[in-house]
Amino acid sequence: MSHTVIAVFDNFDDADTARDALIGSGIPIADVQLTPSEDTLTSRQSTLVRSGHHVYDVDSGWSFSGLLSQLFGADESSVHPDLFSEAIRRGSYLLAVEAETDLERDRAVDIVNRFNPVDLDERATQWRQGGWTGYDHAAPVLGPEDAANDRDGYKGVSADRAERRGAHSFRRQQAEVSGQGGKNFPPAGANEAHYRRHWASSRGESDDRYEDHEAAYAHGEKLGANNAYKGYAWNQIEPEAQLQWESNNSGTPWDRARDAVRFAWERSTK
To answer: How far apart are CA 61 and CA 228, in angstroms?
Structure first.
């Protein structure tokens, strides 16, 4: 059973640290999405595109409304998709994690709940008591000072509760196409000449053929074309690159493929 774990954070550093902890635990970078992706009002405003009622991250091309449309109705939860958009508007941050097994879901929930996520059910109750009736896409996006003032009334609300619900888990009806994993197809012809020159200059005394490394170049090229990895340094994505490689190319060790993967990745991201 596939799941998506979603949590809301008032503090960007908490959300970003939780994201790093999830990735450090072995969850692929592409399966963890933080939005807004930066702690700025501009990023928040660009995230809440006023062309519908739910969150769409312009910078990453990641549609939260598309994700939520697959989730709600599949889970018995009091959380409505409007709440996530309203949380963004009021200065909070959303962290979403895709988990393919119950074990991965439980691990993600455990990790996320260590970093002070908001109890969104409780927060929504406070909003409604203040007259909120639903997300209004025409309402202004709150800046840092206004967001802090808005939260003043929520402090201490959860202090006496025995159980505080932070992360929410939703069942996905079908697996989404992520663009990762699967067969590595040969690189595009436009790049092959560059890859062949790189192979020739780095082969040393090896008897390997270029064809023996073609899949590695293709893997790097595919990583470079994936928007989920844009903006990261090689040392940040290498663990995920290695994991994907070893899952689909068990006959070729990572240390033999690594240079070709990195070369193609770097060329694809220039």
So the answer is: 9
**CA 81 to CA 219: how far, in whole Å?**
36
- Residue 182 located in a structural domain: no
Q: Do 130 and 197 share a domain, yes or no?
A: no
171: left (phi over 0), alpha (psi -120 to 50) or beta: beta
Instruction: Output the pTM of the full model.
Output: 0.57
> Taking the CB of residue 6, how many other CB atoms lie within 10 A of it?
23
CA distance 160 to 54: 32
The number of distinct structural domains making up the chain is 2
Q: Give the per-residue pLDDT at 161.
A: 44
Which among 264, 157, 151, 142 is positioned nearest to 215, based on CA atoms?
A: 264
Is residue 12 domain-shared with residue 112, that is, in the same domain?
yes
130 vs 74, 134, 263, CA distance in Å? 29, 12, 55
Residue written as token pair 């201490």: 156
pLDDT tier, 232 (very low <50, low <70, confident <90, very high otherwise)? confident
Contact status, residue 11 vs residue 116, Cβ threshold 8 Å: yes
Q: Give dist(CA 210, CA 198) in Å, integer.
A: 10
Strand partners of residue 59: none
Range of the domain at 196: 189-268
- 3-state SS, 47-75, equals HECCCCCCCEECCCCEEHHHHHHHHCCCC
pLDDT given at position 47: 67
| Residue 251 is assigned to a structural domain of this protein | yes
Residue 179 lies inside a defined structural domain of this protein: no
Residue 126, domain member (yes or no): yes
> 186 or 50, which is more confident?
186
Based on the domain organization, do 11 and 125 belong to the same domain? yes
For residues 15 and 125, membership in a common domain is answered with: yes
State the DSSP code for 122.
H
